[in-house]
Structures are given as C-alpha cells and as structure tokens.
Amino acid sequence: MFKTILFPLDQSRESREAADVVIQLAKIHGSDRIVLLSVVEDPDDAHSPTMASAEAIAELLKTAQTLFEDQGLKAEIIEKPGKPAFIICDVADEVPADLIVMGCRGTGLTEEGAADSVTNRVINLAPCPVLIVP
Question: Which domain of life is it from (predicted)?
C-alpha cells in the first residue's frame, strides 16, 4: 500500500520520533522506497541556524540513512534548497510518494505561527496522504 514513503526531517525531537514510525510502516507495508528529505533554508528565513547549513543537513541525512540501514531498510537521501513546505510537496510529487510521514512540529513552529507551520502547509498542499506523528 505504501511502496514509497517520503520522510522529511529536521533536527527536532518530533522528527526523531517520526523515524521510528517510518521504520515500522516500511516493514509492515514492505515499502521498497524510503526517501529522506531535508530542506536547506535561506539563512535569512531559517527557523534554526543549522537548517541553513548544507553541511549540517548533509550530516543529519547521513545519520538518518544509517539508522534505516541498521534496521535493514534502504533509504535514499535528497537535500534541496528552498521553503520547506513547498519543497516537501514538490518532492512528494516527483518521487511519487504514496505517503508523507513527518513530525507534528519542526524546528520552526511557534505558538503564534501554528497556522503557518510547515506541517499545516504540507497537509493542505500534499499530493498524497500525510501521517503526522505527535
């Protein structure tokens, strides 16, 4: 059912917790493609300094890829610059993803910005189902 799972990640705790859900779903559904995505944000718009660092993001993706490989799952990595919600939805369309799994909050969510959060935008723009992990 979920042959291709897109897992956008950042350095948040919620993203780390969502990784466990992706691993479980991939094993249950026999997913043959797991795509790990991280977005390099413009330094002026970045919610976190590390999300504007291509080197930090490359390290984050490599660590996540190793986590999946340790569980016997092959995961490919994609790193793209831009606005996270739009890049996530574009990549979901390109790969094409059967499911997007992401944490409920990322590094950029604030209470006053909940309606404009990356998660909320992805839910509204995604070309496939979105599973939000609390």
Answer: Bacteria
DSSP character string of 4-47: EEEEE--SSHHHHHHHHHHHHHHHHHT-SEEEEEEEE--TTT-S
What is the identity of the amino acid at 117?
A: S
Angle between helices 54-70 and 13-29 (to 10 degrees): 40
Q: How confident is the model at residue 84 (pLDDT cuts 50, 70, 90)?
A: very high
Q: What is the CATH number of the domain that holds 99?
A: 3.40.50.620
Q: Which of 125, 109, 123, 105 is nearest to 15 (CA)?
A: 105
| Domain carrying residue 113 | 4-133
The confidence score (pLDDT) of residue 117 equals 85
Q: At a CB cut-off of 8 Å and minimum separation 6, what does 94 contact? A: none
Question: What's the pLDDT at 104?
Answer: 86
**The total number of structural domains that make up the chain:** 1
Q: What global pTM score does this model have?
A: 0.88
Please tell me the distance from the alpha carbon of residue 87 to that of residue 94, in angstroms, as a whole number.
Answer: 10
